[in-house]
Amino acid sequence: MAYYWFKAFHLIGVVVWFAGLFYMVRLFVYHAEAAQEPEPAQTILKNQYEIMEKRLYNIITTPGMVVTVVMAIGLLTTEPEVLKDGWLQIKLAFVAALLVYHFYCGRIMRRLATGQCNWSGQQFRALNEAPTLLLVAIVLLAVFKNNLPTDITAWGMIGMVFVMAVTIHLYAKKRKRDKEILAASQAKDDELTEQLST
Ligand code: HEM
Predict the structure, then answer these.
(1) What is d(CA 91, CA 94) in angstroms, rounded to the nearest whole number?
(2) 10 alpha carbon to ligand 1 midpoint, in Å?
(3) What's the pLDDT tens digit per position in 26-60?
(4) CA-based angle 26:100:130, to the nearest 5?
(5) Is residue 14 lining ligand 1, measured as CB closer than 6 Å?
(6) Of 26, 35, 44, 195, which residue is 20 to 30 A from 138 by alpha carbon distance?
């Protein structure tokens, strides 16, 4: 019975941890793009994102990570023989990468707060792909274990995930382009109004 309790809270921890990791980098995108705003909006926005990032990291993301790892240790102590399984060893390598990513996000957060991070919004968007890939790899390993499927359904699923990722990427690009076009036409309007009033 203990095993099921550990597994249930292991999964709750995973959900909380990933919610935090995904939202952290979204906030980094907004934080980086706040640099394009005029003052005093820029300072106000940056201060607000700094507070939100700190709270998200300390109150949601890190506790989610701790619960996931502590419950995983519970699972391993209840059934230590699982450690001999190949799937778990590969999963642990991906989890190690995820932990590096987690602490790297903490570092970025501190550097953004001191104005030492020059990453663009686009670079943060690309960074946000890393936990998605790790999530897919880890969950597939945890569910299929040593029998990772390679049949047509598996390739269909991989294709679907790929198409979804490309669609999201293209949509984000289109939104950015629309925003730029709108800003350019607004600037033109302002210029015209100024010329007419002089
Ligand atoms: C700290 C490192 C981790 C260890 C040692 C670990 C270990 C385990 C173990 C022993 C199980 C039970 C397997 C079973 O009874 O079938 C499990 C289940 C699971 N783990 Fe992890 N895990 C870790 C991190 C993660 C992470 C980061 C994720 C998600 C990204 C994850 C996702 C899952 C899922 C979805 C299951 C349920 C699989 C099922 O019941 O079919 N684990 N984990």
Answers:
(1) 5
(2) 7
(3) 999 999 999 888 889 899 999 999 999 999 999 99
(4) 45
(5) yes
(6) 26
**7 in contact with ligand 1, CB cutoff 6 A:** yes
- Ligand 1 touching residue 72 (CB < 6 A): yes
In angstroms, rounded to a whole number, what is the distance separating the alpha carbons of residues 106 and 10?
22
Residues of the chain with pLDDT under 50: none
Determine the Cα–Cα distance for residues 98 and 13; give it in Å rounded to an integer.
Answer: 14
Q: State which amino acid sits at residue 3.
A: Y
Segment holding 91, helix H or strand E: helix 86-113
Q: Is the CB of 165 under 6 A from ligand 1?
A: no
> How far apart are the C-alpha atoms of 67 and 59, rounded to whole Å?
12
Atom of ligand 1 nearest to the CA of 69: 1
Q: Which residues contact 85 (CB under 8 A, 6 or more apart)?
A: 145, 146
